[in-house]
Structures are given as structure tokens and as C-alpha cells.
Amino acid sequence: MRRAIWACLMMLVVAPFAHGQAPLAADPEDDAALASVIHDLCDKKIALLGEAAGHGDGHTEAFKVRLVRELVTRCGYHAVFFEASHYEFLDLERSLQMGQSVTAERLGQAVGGVWKFEREVQPLLPFLAAEANAGRIHLGGLDGQLGGLEQSYANDIMPERLTGVLNEPLRTQCRAAIHRRMYWDYTDAAPYDAADKQFLLTCVSDIAGALQPADATQQQELKNLDLYLRLDQTELATLIAGRDRAMYQNFRWLADRLGPRAKIIVWTATAHAAKDATAYPPFATVKALGAYIHEIYGDNAFALGFSARSGAFRWSRKTNRPIATPQDGSLEASVGGGAATGYLDRTQLRKLGVVPGGSFDHIPHPVDWAKSLDGVIVFDEERPPHSTRPGYD
């Protein structure tokens, strides 16, 4: 279970379309379900697009890519926010505001390795980069976690800028301490301990005292840095709850800058997207990102989940796991068999009541799905993503 949660927390980098591989073809069996979802989402203000918590579902990713393109081009969505580095996307937006074009590679760096290695996702990157460069959409990241692999702005440039307001020798000391935490440069002989954490928090406090209040972006970066340092070494449930609350605060900060008419897509995991994720054991005591958003937007927000009747998903770097045959009366069994992808809308979910289903993590959990989600896509067959990440099969 912890593996699935920490899969959400990884941020890695690779160039799009690695090894010269072409994008994968669309799945025609998805067409009818895709049209139904677009119908339900087109007039909403917030579209929360989930996926299983391990982020190992290639069919889901391909469907979401098609859906995002349609929501942007046909339904007038103005923004796409990822469960990805808040810092990297703030820097990306800063570049756009300075009149600099954003490449697909730069966008992939911000999106991070949870998704950008996947051939299913890679066609989305040049599309979103072109839309952002043309001023038709805004891009954002919601996650303030620290230490994303090869995310050079968050790990290196941002700490230099933030500590630049300090006097020596504190400037050098704080830069070294933040660098060590970003790269987790600790050993058994010199572990990360309470003294390290306290010194980092002191650095943040000193930076806050010297930082210009007018620089809203740097203030936002510092706020997230402080929050995630405070979450360090907490229990997993505390980390998850604090992370979802922080992602909502970042969502609110970004959304407020777009104005009240903005239509926003959120690309995330189902547990974060859900109106109520407490039936999912790791979120039993957690108020999810989607719960905060639905409190504000009500029926103008829509949480979409995904599941499958068969197939497999990526469990680890070298391992895929099969999806078990659905139980009678389950969420998945409620959709008729056959090759076509099914879609359960809000009315159909209400009729089901409490039934087992695997939309959170491919493990059947008894859930009142209408209270958790507004719609669920059920594939006949899920498949692991086609990864271009070195060392992955």
C-alpha cells in the first residue's frame, strides 16, 4: 500500500518521444465512452481526472490524453493543473510571462517522471506547450514536495534565489542545508534528524523576513517549502492529509489568478480527485483534494475515475500485475462485457449503492461510488504504460 502512495510522490525527468518512438494509436473501443464523458464534462468548471494510485495504467493515460485535448479544443477549458511540481510550473509560467516559448521538453520536466516517461502521455506535451505559447491555456502544478529527480529549477535554481536575500555566512549555510535535503544527501552515520529540520525551518523563517512581499511567486515557493519541511518525518496519514490540503491551497492560489470564469482540468490520481476518498484505506482519515474543490464548486466540479474488467497494470520497474476477474455485483461487473469501454454516470453510480470496485488501486474496496465520484470509465482491458524510462521493461 505504501508503494502505491509513494508512487504519487516521485518526480523524474526524460526527454519526450525518447528513442524516436512514435505516439501510440488511439483506442477506437473508447470512442463512445469518450463522447459520453465529454458531454458530461463540457459545461463543468473543474474536471478532476483520476487514475489508480500506483500510476501504472497505460489505457487510462491514453484516454485522459484524448479527453484533455477535447476539453481544451471543444469545451473551452482554460487551464490544466497536474499533480506535479508546483515550483517547476511556477518557473514555467514565469517564462511565459516574459515572452519566452515553452518547449515540450520543458513541460515534461515540470510534469515529472510519474507520467512523462510514458508513450501514452507524451503526445500531450507538445499540444499543451503549443496551447500555452499561444496564450490559450494556463499550466500549473499542485504538488509542493521536495527533491524531484533532475528538476533543476526546484532543486537548484529556486534555493539559490530564495537564499540570495540572506547575508553571509547564513546564505551559504542555508544553501548547503537545502541542497542536502533536496538531494537527500544523508547517510546512516549522518541521518536527517530534528536538528537538520529545525535549521532548515530557521532558514525559511530568515528568508521570509528578508523577502520582498511584492514577489508573490517567491512567497508562494517559500510557503510550500516551509509546509513540506514541516511534514518531513510525519506519519504517512499525516503526510497524505497535509499534502492534499496543500495541493488544494495551491489550486486555489492558481485558480484565483485565472478569474471566476476559468475552466480547469486537474490531472491526478483518483484518491486525490474523489469527492470522498475515505473508503480507500490510506485515505481513511484524509480530506482529499477533490473534497475541498467540491465544497467550493459543488456540481460545477466533476470527479472521474477509471477501472477495468481485465488486463494488467505496472506494479514496479520490472513487474506488472494482473487485474483480477471482477466479482458479481461489483462496479466493474455492472458494465456489460465485450470489447467496448463502458461509462457509469452519476445516475448509474447512485443506483449501484455500495459495491466493491477497484477504481482507487485495482483492489476491490466496498464504496458508495456516487459519493466518491461523479463518473467512472470501465475498460474491458487495462494495460501497463509503454515506458521510455531507462531500466523499465
Short précis:
The protein contains 15 helices and eleven strands. It has 393 residues and is of the alpha/beta class.
Low-confidence stretches: 1-20
Total number of strands: 11
Percent range for β-strand residues: 5-15%
- The SS-based structural class is alpha/beta
Radius of gyration based on Cα positions: 21 Å
The first-to-last residue Cα distance is 22 Å
Helix content: 40-55%
| SSE ordering | HHEHEHHHEHHHHHEHHEEEEHEEHE
What's the total helix number?
Answer: 15
The mean pLDDT is: 92
Large-scale geometry: globular
| Order of the strands making up the biggest sheet | 3-2-4-1-5-11-8
Number of domains: 2
Q: Major β-sheet, in short? A: 7 strands, mixed
Overview features:
393 residues, alpha/beta, 2 domains, two-stranded antiparallel sheet, disordered N terminus
Secondary structure: elements and pairs:
Layout: H1 2-7, H2 31-41, E1 46-49, H3 58-73, E2 79-85, H4 86-97, H5 104-111, H6 124-133, E3 138-143, H7 152-163, H8 170-182, H9 194-210, H10 216-231, H11 236-256, E4 264-267, H12 270-273, H13 289-297, E5 301-308, E6 312-316, E7 319-322, E8 342-344, H14 346-352, E9 354-357, E10 365-368, H15 369-372, E11 375-379
Parallel strand pairs: 1-4, 1-5, 2-3, 2-4, 5-11
Antiparallel strand pairs: 6-7, 8-11, 9-10
What can you see in these coordinates?
The chain is of the alpha/beta class and about 400 residues long. It has 2 domains: about 1-145 and about 245-380, no CATH class; about 150-235. The protein contains 15 helices and 11 strands. A 7-stranded mixed β-sheet has the order 3-2-4-1-5-11-8, sandwiched between helices. A two-stranded antiparallel sheet has the order 6-7. The chain has a two-stranded antiparallel sheet with strand order 9-10. α4 (about 85-95) runs antiparallel to α5 and α10 (about 215-230) runs antiparallel to α11.
